[in-house]
Design goal:
- The N terminus is likely disordered.
- With 335 residues, the protein is α/β, with parallel strands linked by helices.
- The strands form 3 sheets. The chain has a 7-stranded parallel beta sheet with strand order 10-9-8-13-11-14-12, sandwiched between helices.
- It is built from 12 helices and 14 strands.
């Protein structure tokens, strides 16, 4: 038993030194030395950083290709033009029979006309098909499910068109349009209106009551998207929209050009029925439904008008408020 226990012991004698015996792991010392420093994340094939590194290298290689290739790609992007509703990579989709008819009547460049299979025809769809044929626009018959996908599930009534992104005008163009019409300028400015449906409603009212255009800020404000096109019932094709960097500075410039600025706000110093400057060159400023007019914009207003409403309703949305104010301007100008 003693001999067996010595064989199982941790050490055995070899002269005067103790050396590691079998069973201690000594013969596998290399296995305990480790694998060296941990590789960088970007060098580990399974790590996301490695994949990002490979992707960056591929982009760098692509960037070294001939400039002619880049110029061709840029030309293909710019050839898409500029006017419309929902943005895809280079185009937008306008849907709905009225919106499509108005866009075609306005002569907006169209890339493709989509018609649903087995569509029940009416005067508008016949006009759409005829306009597509006369202008040699590509006409595609697609399933309703495909139209749902193209229009993000909106109510398309079986028709849609693909058009370049919307082309905004300069604010000076609105004054030029007023001068050409030989009528006192009438412009609607939106301050902090972020819902494109409200913008669409304002465009519809602006078209109905003879406004020369609409001003919207570039930042924190709605632009002309498919939703705006839809609600405007095609008025976006007729009423120009100017997108400005700074609304306050733009209002200051308009005032220097002889245009009066009237803001719409629930706490106004006059009512809409006594709207001042209605027959003069005028900018109506509509604030957001929740916050109303911003302080800096309010300071630029020559007057603040309110629309009397019952106490059970907190406020009107921008589209309704603009419509009421534009009607009052049109009424006073007709007297």
């Amino acid at each position: 038993m003693a001999g067996n226990s010595s064989r199982r012991g941790a050490t055995r004698k070899a002269g005067s030194k103790k050396v590691a015996a079998a069973g201690t792991g000594g013969k596998n010392r290399r296995a305990l030395e480790g694998r060296g420093p941990t590789p960088k994340a970007e060098d580990r094939e399974y790590h996301p950083a490695h994949k990002a590194k490979i992707a960056a290298e591929r982009r760098a290689v692509a960037g070294t290709r001939g400039t002619s290739g880049r110029q061709a790609a840029g030309a293909s992007r710019s050839a898409a033009g500029s006017k419309g509703g929902r943005k895809s990579s280079t185009h937008e989709i306008v849907s709905g029979r009225n919106s499509v008819v108005e866009a075609l009547r306005a002569g907006i460049p169209v890339s493709t006309v989509y018609i649903a299979s087995r569509l029940e025809a009416d005067d508008r769809t016949r006009e759409i098909i005829a306009a597509a044929g006369n202008s040699n626009y590509p006409l595609l018959e697609v399933s309703r499910s495909e139209l749902d996908r193209l229009t993000d599930g909106s109510v398309h009534q079986g028709v849609a068109i693909q058009v370049p992104p919307y082309e905004y005008v300069d604010d000076d163009d609105l004054l030029d349009a007023a001068a050409e019409s030989e009528r006192a300028a009438l412009i609607v400015a939106l301050d902090g209106v972020t819902d494109p449906r409200n913008l669409g409603a304002v465009l519809r009212s602006a078209g109905a009551f003879g406004a020369h255009g609409v001003l919207v800020p570039e930042r924190r404000a709605a632009g002309v998207t498919a939703s705006a096109w839809k609600v405007s019932a095609g008025a976006a094709a007729r009423v120009p929209v100017a997108r400005v960097t700074n609304l306050v500075r733009t209002l200051q410039g308009l005032k220097q050009a002889g245009v009066f600025v009237v803001g719409l706000d629930g706490g106004g110093d006059t009512t809409i029925t006594e709207l001042p400057y209605a027959t003069d060159p005028l900018v109506l400023v509509v604030g957001s439904e929740g916050k109303g007019l911003s302080r800096l914009v309010r300071e630029q207003c020559d007057a603040i008008a309110s629309i009397p409403i019952t106490s059970s309703v907190e406020s009107l949305n921008a589209g309704v408020a603009a419509g009421i104010a534009l009607y009052e301007v049109a009424r006073q100008r007709a007297i």
